[in-house]
Write a structure and sequence with these properties.
heterodimer; A: 238 residues; alpha/beta; Rossmann fold; 2 domains; 6-stranded mixed beta sheet; 9 helices; B: 341 residues; mainly alpha; two-stranded antiparallel sheet; 70% helix; globular
Chain lengths: 238, 341
């Protein structure tokens, strides 16, 4: 039981008459890498937002590391040591790359330590050339990387990423996959993603959402071979 | 980065001292002191709006509260030291409570503006109704729209007979303004200040990093209230009367105009904006050919159209370009323009 670091029990989120997340039971183990997939509107992002505290679930529970965090404020969830990246890059546009990453590192360590951590993270993400640039002027892929830098600078043990590869070029996606594998050495991850190519490249276990509920949960290859999953995807796309 | 920031502070201080010594040759002490007080009031909004992203329509509430706190306590105590401290503490606490209510209640910017505006109007209305003798606090009668006259003005601490007025009030006010400027600069250079700016840039990201934005905004708002209160106390000492007019809508609007014209995202900008527009208003008040309000409105419109980031940030860009000797890249008005979010 102690091996499970994140669990939801009958998690439900309704918006008016729409049930976006419907009685989801979900478990994540230590250092696991899990992808959430599903067609548009399947409830992945809503589920994700319930985990991070951005949305307060209508009913059900969220347990993180045996602590019930249902309805907590995002900053309280983050303080447990959880790194969160939202769907649209959420960065501080008017500040430099270094300042963005420093601010995140400072929360978990002192000012001196934070400067060192920021330097390391910038190095690791290959942001050295643009570390003084104002984030608002960077390209989309660079901003995604800055946000990832913000996430890892806080040294989280659980990382939640909402569409980290969205809008990136092929080369950037490959780089992102490498980074994710690297993060996974120390931390568990939940990744919401559309890009099947990307999911294949990072492999691991996949949870398929459909109409707010979990359709199936298995290794990526098994999921891709499943007829129901194909139906859900193709049915929506047609 | 921090080093160059501190060098800028020294430059501003040096320029400030020069202005302090030269200005009395141009204008009289009485007018200059008022311009300094306006400058401090503008700086209080410049801090919370330009750096914290909190647009407060009711900065005049804290200004008036500081002035009334000073006047009432000075009338009772007969010495100015404790009243000065009260004039900072009371608006600080009041702004803290008001801020806590707004930020912990997660009110959006629009409602924040409305609430701060309404609070100012409530003070204005209430103070206007306190003409009766039942509105007396100790020896001080609130006096309704007539205000409170005849209290102890600023004196050398511990010596109620040694009044600080005219030229000495001018120098004292100038030094206080410079000290407040340096303290605010240090605050902004500290982690607290850097996180405050980050909240202005992206509040939800700051929360996802694990910081409590509500608490930090509340503290920043309270500090802005305290500085406005200090300006109010100096005004009370300068004018020797406080009236409900300090809480008026016009006063609140003027502070916002000073900040916009001077330039958000800087501290010097609002101070210079306040001093320049304050002087212009004073000069225009001496003639009847043009309406004062009309000119103020026209200036605001022109600045917003021509220099949307305000005068000081625009000048800084020009200077930076001259220093580098090549055309500066067009800066997106991030530092200032973002602030109004």
């Amino acid at each position: 039981m102690a091996d499970v670091i994140l669990e939801t029990r009958r998690l439900t989120m309704r918006f008016g008459g729409v049930t976006a997340v419907d009685n989801v039971d979900f478990k994540l183990r230590r250092k696991e890498l899990r992808c959430l997939i599903g067609p548009n509107g399947a409830g992945k992002t809503t589920f994700f937002r319930c985990l991070t505290g951005i949305l307060k679930p209508t009913s059900g529970e969220v347990m993180i590391d045996d602590v019930e965090t249902t309805g907590w404020e995002p900053q309280a969830v983050a303080r447990l040591g959880i790194g969160i990246k939202t769907q649209v890059p959420s960065v501080m546009d008017g500040l430099s790359v270094r300042e963005n990453i420093w601010l995140s590192a400072y929360r978990v360590s002192g000012a001196r330590e934070a400067a060192r951590t920021a330097g390391e993270v910038i190095e690791r993400l290959g942001l050295g050339d643009i570390s003084r640039a104002i984030v608002g002027r960077l390209a989309h892929g660079e901003r995604q990387r800055v946000e990832l830098g913000i996430v890892i600078a806080a040294r989280p043990w659980l990382v939640l990423l909402d569409e980290p590869a969205a809008g990136m070029t092929g080369e950037e996606v490959e780089r992102m996959a490498g980074l994710i594998r690297e993060i996974n050495r120390d931390a568990a991850l939940i990744i919401v993603e559309h890009d099947m190519q990307f999911i294949r490249s990072i492999a691991g276990k996949v949870t398929v959402f459909s109409q707010g509920a979990v359709l199936m949960e298995d290794h990526v290859d098994a999921v891709m071979a499943d007829a129901r999953v194909r139906d859900v995807y193709l049915g929506k796309k047609a | 980065m921090a080093g160059s920031g501190m060098r800028d502070v020294l430059w501003v201080l040096a320029a400030g001292v020069v202005v302090m010594l030269v200005a009395p040759f141009v204008l009289n002490y009485y007018t200059l002191t008022l311009l300094l007080i306006y400058g401090m009031l503008a700086m209080s909004l410049g801090l919370i709006w330009g750096f914290g992203g909190i647009l407060c329509f009711g900065q005049a509430a804290f200004y008036g509260l500081g002035a009334y706190a000073y006047a009432i306590s000075a009338a009772n105590i007969g010495e100015s030291t404790i009243p000065m401290l009260l004039a900072v503490a009371l608006p600080f606490v009041f702004a803290g409570l008001l801020g806590a209510m707004m930020f912990y209640g997660r009110l959006s910017d629009v409602y924040l503006g409305v609430i701060t505006l309404v609070v100012t109007l409530i003070f204005f209305r209430f103070m206007n109704t306190t003409a009766g003798p039942e509105y007396t606090i100790g020896k001080a009668r609130l006096g309704g729209f007539n205000g409170i006259p005849g209290y102890q003005t600023l004196n050398v601490p511990g010596d109620p007979g040694a009044y600080i007025y005219d030229s000495s009030l001018y120098y004292v006010t100038f030094v206080i303004l410079l000290v407040v400027y340096v303290l605010v600069r240090l605050l902004l250079a500290s982690p607290f200040g850097r996180i405050a700016v980050a909240i202005r840039e992206n509040e939800s990201r700051v929360e996802l990093m694990g910081y409590d934005a509500r608490l930090r905004k509340t503290v920043l708002f309270a500090i802005g209230g305290g500085i406005a209160g200090l300006a109010g106390a100096l005004f009370a000492s300068w004018a020797e009367i406080v009236t409900p007019g300090m809480f008026s809508l016009g006063q609140s609007a003027e502070i916002i105009i000073w900040c916009i014209v001077g330039g958000l995202g800087t501290l010097v900008g609002p101070v210079l904006g306040a001093a320049a527009l304050g002087y212009l208003k004073f000069a225009l008040g001496q003639q009847t050919a043009v309406d004062n309000q009309l000119v103020m409105g026209a200036i605001l419109v022109v600045v917003v159209l021509v220099l949307p980031r305000g005068v000081v940030p625009s000048l800084m860009t020009v200077f930076a370009r001259l220093r580098r000797g090549r055309p500066a890249r067009r800066r997106r008005g991030r530092s200032g323009g973002r602030a109004d979010g």
